[in-house]
Each structure stands twice: as C-alpha cells, then as structure tokens.
C-alpha cells in the first residue's frame, strides 16, 4: 500500500508540518491530570508484590508458599507454575529479539535464579504491608551456585554455566559442549590483510563499557483485572500495548482477543518498556484472586530486575593512508546479554563501521550470558558502544596522520550508494551534511584553554518500520478523532496530528489524537526503533487520504458529477469540471454524511517499509580538573539528519535528551557489582544520571535530507542522538589530558588515575 | 494498629484523611486523596518527581510522613493553575516543548515555582542548581531551563506592570487630596 504515498508532497507548500504548535496532550501533563502507569485505581484493588532472588546464581530446590497463602489478607500467591512453560521461539521486539522460553523464565524463575533480583514468587494482598509480610513467609530452598559477572570470564571454558543447553549458534560446526556464548555474528567484505597492508597508519585499541540503565523516571507499573470468565483488562506503562498483549497471552495461555491492553501515559522508556515484567504476574494473580491487582516496581527493583543495556569488551583496528583514506576496519565485540541470550550485539556489529565507506571491513560479535539482569533495548541498542570504540579509533587515526577529524570523516563518509558493512547500499543519507554543518559551526572554531579539549564523533542508526494501523473518525461537525496504536513517548500525538491536518487541509485544533487500546485497532508494532513518526505517520497519511477519497465521492454524489471532476484542496472538495465553480468544506460534507452514504472513517493497516537511517555528528568541549579528575561539559552541539522535522522542537528535544543520556553514559553511569554478584548501586543516589547542573545548554542543528520513502520525508530521530556522545566526550577528554580514554564511564577517580599514571610515566 | 486521623489543607481546601504510621505524604496524596499528579520515581528523595510545597517550603513528599501534614498547608501540581488559567510556568513549559514523557513535569513545575518565589530573576546557573534535585531523563534539561527563565522574565514584567499600576493608583488619590 505504500506505493500510494509519493514524495511529491515534498515539493508542495507545507502549512503545518515543520511548524511548532503546542502539543495536544500538553495541558494534561503540566497540570498533573495525565494518567501514568501507577496512577490507575480500581475499586476492590489488591496490591501485588514480588519476591526476588538474593543470589546471583542458584538452583531452586523447592518453594513453599503455604504459610504466605494462609496469611489473612493474602488473596493469591503465584510462582512459575502459574505461567506456561514455552518452547524456544524468537520473535521481534523493537530491534531486539525475544524468546518465549526465556521470557517465561525471566519474568518468574523456574529451575534456577540467574541474577540477584530475579523474580521467584509473587503475592496479591489487601495492603502493601500484608503483601510484604506474605513475601517474608514464602520459603525458598536454594542451592547456591558459582556465578559469573564479567563477559570475558563468562566466555572461558571453565566458567560457571548459566544454561546447560546453550550451544553457540553461528559457528561451524556447532560446538558439542555447552557454554555461555549464545551466538557469534559476523559482517563484512573485502580483504582485511590487503587493506591493512596499504595503510600508512594503523591504530588498534581495546575498550570496556559497563551496563547502563535506561533510567526512565517512571518505574514499571500495571493494573490487571481478570474476570471470572477469563476476560481480562490490563492497564500498563509500555512502549507497545500490542506486544504486551502478545507476550502476556502467550505466558498465560489466553487467546489474544480475551486480553485488552491499554497503554497508560508512559513516563519514559528508551527501549526498556518493550518487554514485560510485572504484567504477566499481575494477570496471573488477578486470575487467581478474581480481583484487580496493581503492581509497581520500586526503584531498586527497576535497577536489579529490569533490563539495562549490555556492558562490553570491544577491540577495534583501523588502518588509513597518510592522505586520509581508511584502508581497512576490523572489530571484535563481546556483549553481555545478562541472564538470557539476546544482547544487541548484532545491531552493534551492523552499526560499528556504518558511517564509513570501506572496501575492507569485518565485524565479529559474541552474545554472552552472565549473572546479571537480562538486557533490554536501550535507545539504538548495541550501536552506542560499538560506535564509541570505532569513533575513538577514528579520532586517533586522524590525529596520527595529522588531519582534522571532521575532514578525515568527510573523506571517508558513507553516502547514497555506499555499501553498508552489513550488506545493502544506502539510499540518500545525510552524514556528509552533518559533517559540513559541524565544520561550518562557530562552535568548531572557538579557541580552547588549558585543560580543555574538543571532541567530535559521528553516529548511525537504521530506524525501522513495521506493522502499523491508524483510524480517522470524522465527526458530524467535521472534527476528527485520530486513533493510533503506538504509545506517545515524546510528542508523537503532536507530529501525527500535524500530518493529519496537513493532509486534510484543516486546522490542527480540529484533530484530537488518541492512543487506542488493543481492541480499537489492528496489530501495531511497538514504539521503538524511532519508528512512530515514520510508520504511524505513514498510516495517518494513508487514513487521511482514505477520508479524502470518500469526501470527494460524497461531493461528486451531491453535485451529480464524476468523482474525477472533484479535487480536494485546502480542506474543500472543489468541482474542477466545466461550469460554475463550486466547493464543499469538510465540515459541510461531514454534516451531511448520513444522507450521502453513512459515517466516514478513514483506515490504514500497513507494514511500513523504507525507514531511512539517521546520521549525526556531535561536537563537545570539555574541561578536565587535573586535581580531581572531574570532567565538565563546557559546550555541546548535536547535528543530525532528521529527513524532515515535522515538529522541530520535539526533534531538538530528542537530540538534546539523547546527548545528555550519552553524557551520563560517558561520565558517570555504571552497574557496580560486589564479589557476590550483588548490585551495589540500585538507586539514583549512587547510579548517577545527569542532573540539571551537570550540563550546559545543548545546541542543535537539524539537517534535512528527505527520506524518499515517506510522504513528508521523515526519518526516525529518537535513537541516533545517543550514539555519538561517548566517543565525542572520550575524544575531548583525551585531547584535554593527552591520555587516550578507552574505558567507560570516565568517572573522576578513573580520569584522575589516568592523569597521575601519565605524570608518573 | 489503628489509623491516624489527619486534618490538613491541600491546595487551599481543608481535607481529612486516615493514614497508617508508615504512609508517606506521597502515599496519602496518591492513594488516599487520589491526587496522582505527584509522582513516585524513587521513594528516596533522589528524583524530585514528588516535589510539593509544605508550609511554603519545597519538599519531596516521599520523605514526609502523612501524619506530619496535620495542621499544615500542602500545595501540589493540581493547585498550580488558577481555574482554566495556567500558571506562567505551565504555559512556558508548553510553549518551549519543555517536556517529552511528562512524568517529571509536575515535580519540576512545583520546584520551579518555589524557585521563582524566592528568586524572581535567577541566572541560568541558579536555575540549574535549584532544579538539580529533579531528574528528567528525556529532555536534557535545555528546554526546561529556557522555559523557567522565560516564565521568570514574563512574571517579572507582569509584576513590574502590576507594581507600576499599584504605585499609580496609590499616587492618584494622594494627588487628589493635595
């Protein structure tokens, strides 16, 4: 169906797309009226709580819930026995894959607990205090097993095994001995040896990064309500109500039609709310208790038991000629998956060298399980750490050949027609334009002082499309109820209603956008992969064109003329045939719809294809305090190709937010474990995300190289901004100190150690 | 144990509630009074999503017990707008697109209002340090700080006009009597 959408609209004069109207859901969010996950309250509602493993790795010998069950006020107790065990089957969730065998074990441990915080039982009671008391009465007999936290330790042949049945996929022949290495991936082409032989300069480095959490401010929360006949309602904070329905119905053995999922307002997700944790437990408890059950994670549960992204060990080697042409690139990525397979090593491997046009390139990746929480998607999953390593080496190569790092990137930049390291050729992309904008930016020319450094890095992310529906219900007064199926995580109701208004030719205030529950639309893939303004935008445009086609038919019927002689422009049906000019407005046609054929509804049900990769270049100036090792961000400029910025303020917001999350990743954020595999910093005091006083204003430059596959040229913009910051900052800190930083985070003690080691040398 | 009976003032209205000893003010606001505009992000005073005013002082409602509200005045996000007239900070947050997901927004608005009551003309640095107790994971703070500074400027201008009007109106009768 996408072929009905043509880029001809790119040429037309836009009235609404590209402007900055107030967001339609704004007032609810500044008055406290907006209902998030934990804000739902139902009569007769119980409180659900989860018992979690105190061990990083242990066999569950037995669970006895009888004492908990007997406590007054306890209405239901559940364990893994109340969920379906499922065979191994991979299905997509965002850019990541999920496996139902693993999912049912991750939401509730079966044979073993595999990380501290792993759920083992859950209760529902009439109060939180009783629920907590009940958890203390659940008796779990554990056989504690040796655990492994570090990715390279986990890859050793004698490492403690998490899964006896894990035989590395992607190596020939398949190993006979099980290991913690779930998968090996490889991408690339050309002749590496010949490439490196042509190089005048070769730089080879090893990097380490720590797992970091998405850090959404709203903890996971849901309310489940299962009736005596099995029909179920679920309210939850999620990036995809349809995938929650799909996952939960699998885990509970229900038909999808029996479960209606409503996405609450979502208080941040960044990929972390593309999976389920509490939802199946709340449904199981509610099914047992026949009462509504509300469950909300504490902040420590969010850190211990919901997915961070992978920490990694990465090796990169790049060769280049003196005149600045990269001759070969080689990378080895070892990603922690957490307790179950499925780290984002594959997208990481695909992204690593994607900003460059290379003749000889190879990326090898390993997906490795360790006794940590199972990773979930986090903004451009896998890309940021792979590109951190590559962009750091690129900077060092440029330094060694004495070339400006932006110039060096321009000489090697991927462009339309470049073959990506993972195979396909790029369509139009905007990396060169972002680099040129960086070069021309006043920021790039400001002189630096002592202990200050400037860093540059580029970044790539694919973006995705996928199954998407939209429904446009024309009211009898000509106003429009727009229903989409992708939760609005950062302003998409604004961008989608803007495209709807642009198509229909009516003003924005006549459109009320809503996020439909799972019974109101066909299946929608989740909000992820920067796909919403792209995919739901495409569906909205198609639904609007469906409405317009019907409106033209109605006008033709009223005028008794062929529909071909009726055109739609500026919110009016206009007669174009010979004779007197006539027109009917959308409101007039809507008012008579009942008499001209019935209500008018525009629908779209598409599989959106042709997502456009988004590329970015970031500039950062830092100052390093040589006495404390503290890094201060002095100035930051993010430049990105948006394709078309439908609402530029929210595009800037994505760029600024991604940059600041990247600043946290670069400088402070990390999961810290003790020797027993216990997370030592499961709170915002010790897991330090950037606060307002940590950062300067984040300047933005939006570049627009239209995506020819979208009616308005839209690319996704949400994920790419978190890709360049770590390398840009590491490069800046390296230039400020004269020490190359290869380990994240560059926290004050680490930076100070490096400075002192250099002074001692 | 029997619950405590507490009488307090919330957004100008007298309210009574029953709470257990361990319930925080945030629990009471959200679960007993159904004022869910104040959010729970951490329950340890680190994220600021539950920021409210208690007798004119900015506090994290998760660090105050419900019983401590007895006889005191609580102001929450639900009391910030005056009827359908949004507070300048609320308006400026919308105009500047200073929110994405919006979960931190109520707490940040309450905290920013407290700032402007103490310091009507904050510098960017002062605003940033004042808001350092309110985490936002979406925006990178840029548009939040701009919205706060812009609201401050608008409120100063309005106060200036108001003050000018007031000084004129006090002068006129004086002149008349002279």
Please describe what this structure looks like.
- The complex is a heterodimer of chains A (761) and B (178).
- Chain A is an alpha+beta fold and 761 residues long.
- Chain A contains 20 helices and 28 strands.
- A 7-stranded mixed beta sheet of chain A has the order 3-7-1-14-11-12-13, with helices on both faces. In chain A, strands 9-17-16-15-10 form a 5-stranded mixed beta sheet, sandwiched between helices.
- In chain A, β26 and β27 form a beta hairpin.
- Chain A starts with 25 loop residues before the first helix and ends with a helix.
- The N terminus of chain A is likely disordered.
- Chain B is α+β, with helices and mostly antiparallel strands and 178 residues long.
- Chains A and B meet through α1 and α18 of A and α2, α3, α4 and α5 of B.
Query: Biggest β-sheet of chain B, characterized?
Result: 5 strands, mixed
Question: Rough shape of chain A?
Answer: globular
**What's the story with the biggest beta sheet of chain A?**
7 strands, mixed
**Percent of residues in beta strands of chain A:** 15-25%
Total of helices of chain A: 20
> Whole-number average pLDDT of chain A?
96
- Largest beta sheet: strand ordering of chain B: 2-1-5-3-4
Report the count of strand segments of chain B.
5
Please state the CA-atom Rg of chain A, rounded to the nearest Å: 27 Å
Can you give the helix content of chain A as a percent range? 25-40%
Total DSSP helices of chain B: 5
Q: What is the rounded Rg of chain B?
A: 19 Å
Order of helices and strands of chain B: EEHEEEHHHH
Oligomeric state of this protein: heterodimer
The average pLDDT score of chain B comes to 93
């Amino acid at each position: 169906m996408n072929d009905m959408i043509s880029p001809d609209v790119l040429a037309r004069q836009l009235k609404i797309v590209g402007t900055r109207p107030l967001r339609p859901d704004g007032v609810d969010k500044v008055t406290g009226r907006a209902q998030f996950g934990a804000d739902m309250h139902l009569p007769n509602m119980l409180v659900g709580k989860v018992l979690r493993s105190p061990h990083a790795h242990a066999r569950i010998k037995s669970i006895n819930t009888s004492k908990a069950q007997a406590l007054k006020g306890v209405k239901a107790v559940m364990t893994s026995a109340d969920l379906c065990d499922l065979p191994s089957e991979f299905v997509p969730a965002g850019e990541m894959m999920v496996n139902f065998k693993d999912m049912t074990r991750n939401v509730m441990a079966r044979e073993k607990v595999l990380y501290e915080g792993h759920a083992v039982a859950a209760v529902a009671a009439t109060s939180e205090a009783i629920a907590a008391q009940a958890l203390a009465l659940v008796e779990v007999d554990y056989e504690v097993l040796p655990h492994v936290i570090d990715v390279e330790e986990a890859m050793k042949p004698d490492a403690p095994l998490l899964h006896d049945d894990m035989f590395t996929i992607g190596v020939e022949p398949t190993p006979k001995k099980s290991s913690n290495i779930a998968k090996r991936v490889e991408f690339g082409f050309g002749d590496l040896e010949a490439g490196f032989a042509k190089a005048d300069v070769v730089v080879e480095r090893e990097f380490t990064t720590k797992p970091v959490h998405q850090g959404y401010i709203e903890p996971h929360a849901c309310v489940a309500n299962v009736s005596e006949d099995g029909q179920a309602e679920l309210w939850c904070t999620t990036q995809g109500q349809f995938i929650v329905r799909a996952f939960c119905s699998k885990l509970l053995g229900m038909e999808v039609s029996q479960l209606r999922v409503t996405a609450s307002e979502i208080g941040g997700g960044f990929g972390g709310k593309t999976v389920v944790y509490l939802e199946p437990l709340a449904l199981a408890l509610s099914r047992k208790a026949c009462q509504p059950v509300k469950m909300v994670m504490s902040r420590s549960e969010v850190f211990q038991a919901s997915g961070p992204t992978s920490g990694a060990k990465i090796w990169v080697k790049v060769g280049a000629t003196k005149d600045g042409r990269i001759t070969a690139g080689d990378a080895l990525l070892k990603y922690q998956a957490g307790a179950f397979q499925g780290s984002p090593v594959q997208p990481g491997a695909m992204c690593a060298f994607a900003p460059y046009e290379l003749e000889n390139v190879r990326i090898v990746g390993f997906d490795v399980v360790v006794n940590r929480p199972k990773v979930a998607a986090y903004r451009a999953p896998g890309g940021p750490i792979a590109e951190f390593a590559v962009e750091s080496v690129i900077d060092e190569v440029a330094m060694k050949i004495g070339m400006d790092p932006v110039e060096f990137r321009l000489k090697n930049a991927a462009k339309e027609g470049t073959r990506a390291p993972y195979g396909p050729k790029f369509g139009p992309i905007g990396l060169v334009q972002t680099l040129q904008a960086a070069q021309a930016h006043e920021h790039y020319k400001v002189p630096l002082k002592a202990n200050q450094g400037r860093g540059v890095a580029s970044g790539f992310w694919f973006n995705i499309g996928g199954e998407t529906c939209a429904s446009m219900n024309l009211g009898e007064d000509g106003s429009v109820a727009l229903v989409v199926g992708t939760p609005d995580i950062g302003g998409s109701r604004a961008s989608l209603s803007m495209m709807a208004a642009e198509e229909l030719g009516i003003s924005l205030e006549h459109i009320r956008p809503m996020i439909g529950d799972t019974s109101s639309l066909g299946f929608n893939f989740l909000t992820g992969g920067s796909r919403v303004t792209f995919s739901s935008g495409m569906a909205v445009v198609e639904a609007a064109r469906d409405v317009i086609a019907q409106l033209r038919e109605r006008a033709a019927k009223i005028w008794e003329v062929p529909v071909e002689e009726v055109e739609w422009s500026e919110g009016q049906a206009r007669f174009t045939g010979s004779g007197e000019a006539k027109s009917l407005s959308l409101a007039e046609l809507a008012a008579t719809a009942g008499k001209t054929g019935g209500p008018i509804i525009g629908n779209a049900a598409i599989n959106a294809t042709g997502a456009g990769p988004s590329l970015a270049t970031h500039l950062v100036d830092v100052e390093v305090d040589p006495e404390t090792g503290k890094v201060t961000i002095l100035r930051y400029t993010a430049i990105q190709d948006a394709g078309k910025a439908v609402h530029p303020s929210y595009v800037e917001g994505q760029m600024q937010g991604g940059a600041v999350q990247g600043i946290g990743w670069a400088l402070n954020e990390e999961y810290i474990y003790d020797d027993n595999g216990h997370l030592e910093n499961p709170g915002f005091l010790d897991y330090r995300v950037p606060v307002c006083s940590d950062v300067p204003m984040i300047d933005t430059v939006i570049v627009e190289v239209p995506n020819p596959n979208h009616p308005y040229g839209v690319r996704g913009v949400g994920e790419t901004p978190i890709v360049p910051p770590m390398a840009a900052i590491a490069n800046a800190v390296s230039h400020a100190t004269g020490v190359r930083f290869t380990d994240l985070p560059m926290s004050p003690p680490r930076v100070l150690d490096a400075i002192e080691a250099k002074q001692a040398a | 144990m029997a619950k405590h009976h507490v009488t307090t003032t919330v957004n100008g209205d007298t309210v009574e509630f029953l709470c257990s000893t361990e319930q925080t003010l945030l629990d009471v606001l959200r679960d007993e009074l159904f004022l869910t505009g104040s959010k729970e992000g951490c329950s340890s005073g680190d994220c600021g999503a539950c920021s409210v005013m208690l007798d004119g002082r900015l506090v994290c409602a998760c660090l105050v017990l419900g019983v401590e509200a007895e006889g005191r005045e609580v102001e929450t996000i639900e009391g910030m707008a005056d009827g359908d007239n949004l507070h300048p900070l609320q308006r400026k947050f919308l105009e500047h697109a200073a929110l994405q997901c919006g979960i931190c927004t109520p707490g940040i608005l309450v905290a920013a209002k407290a700032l402007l009551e103490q310091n009507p003309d904050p510098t960017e640095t002062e605003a940033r340090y004042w808001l350092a107790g309110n985490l936002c994971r979406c925006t990178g703070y840029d548009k939040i700080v701009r919205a706060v500074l812009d609201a401050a400027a608008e409120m100063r201008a309005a106060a200036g006009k108001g003050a000018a009007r007031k000084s004129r109106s006090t002068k006129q009768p004086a002149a008349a009597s002279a």
